[in-house]
């Protein structure tokens, strides 16, 4: 008579395994999401400190830190139009402890402007949410002899216009390059490492023009230190009602926003990604946060991951077309 190959010890192991599976299915054993995070989370911001992206990030992740009982620490890792910091996250362990908070242009325009990138947005990164959006305002120093967008275009057509931007792929860079192809003038780029030093030099007259995040220049326009010529939005800002939209100023097809996007490395478990999405959206729904950034003309969005992914794909196709038409290169 053959002995049963499954002995008592093995039977006990099998029963224990079945009980564990049943417990997991019933939610008795804490899930991965319930145990996350257990240590500080690094949020890479691939642009210089002091700009709108940085300011929004610090406010949002401070609240997220309080809610999830672990620090979410911003790390500014600059260079190559946001590519260095983005690449670092794309190659990080997909465990939820390294995240990317970045301007949409780095993800959607850089692939068209750089001949070769060390990362693939679609394959290497997982969208969590579009947190916020800001508009770009075309501003000039008061010494520039123009008062309207039409006068600016005529002025720029006389000779290539030097303009400042916060680095390749930044909102101001993309806005001006997009606009110049539409309006038909040439430019000379004066790149900076972020919006904060750019605005300082604009106000001082060291540089004369640029599309800049509305949040970064709105007070200077209201104080008369800069002239606002047009805003890239569908409606005027209530904070600068005297500045027309680009559509009102004669360019109805020019509509361009800058979006602040949170992503994780591809392969991040669904449980962690879903938890981050829920928690971030809850933070952004806070009336306190909405009011905090309204005076800076920054809109809190808090999209779901699917909407963020769809936007990135659509915007990537747009910038592929614009880059080809404008011969945009960043390397």
Question: How would you portray this structure in words?
Answer:
By secondary structure, this protein is of the alpha/beta class. It has 2 domains: 37-133 and 257-326, Bordetella uptake gene, domain 1 (D-Maltodextrin-Binding Protein, domain 2), CATH 3.40.190; 135-231, D-Maltodextrin-Binding Protein, domain 2 (3-Layer(aba) Sandwich), CATH 3.40.190. 43% of the residues lie in helices and 19% in strands. The protein is built from 13 helices and 10 strands. The protein has helices at residues 8-26, 52-68, 83-90, 104-108, 110-113, 121-124, 149-156, 171-183, 195-204, 214-222, 270-284, 287-293, 305-326, and strands spanning 41-45, 72-76, 98-103, 125-140, 161-165, 187-191, 209-213, 227-231, 257-265, 298-300. Strands 1, 2, 3, 4, 7, 8, 9 and 10 form an 8-stranded mixed beta sheet that branches. Strands 5-6 form a two-stranded parallel sheet. Helix 2 packs across helix 11. The radius of gyration is 24 Å and the shape is globular.
